[in-house]
Write a structure and sequence with these properties.
Blueprint lengths: L9 H50 L3
């Protein structure tokens, strides 16, 4: 196992932590996009339901 606190490995440890931080930021971006897409899909589903209800209402004889 690498001793990250060994003076020879400080640069490697910093690089490794930078990679972890970068991966976390990318994951956060992906999660944000997924939440936004889910919200948009939910809104579209609601609109589709309203359209279907209105279509059915139009077909019912008055």
């Amino acid at each position: 196992m690498i001793n990250l606190f060994d003076s020879g490995n400080i640069h490697d440890a910093e690089s490794f932590l930078d990679q972890i931080n970068s991966a976390e930021m990318k994951m956060n971006d992906i999660n944000r996009n997924l939440i936004e897409n889910n919200t948009q899909n939910s809104e579209i589903n609601v609109l589709n339901e309203f359209q279907e209800i209105n279509y059915i209402k139009e077909k019912i004889p008055q």
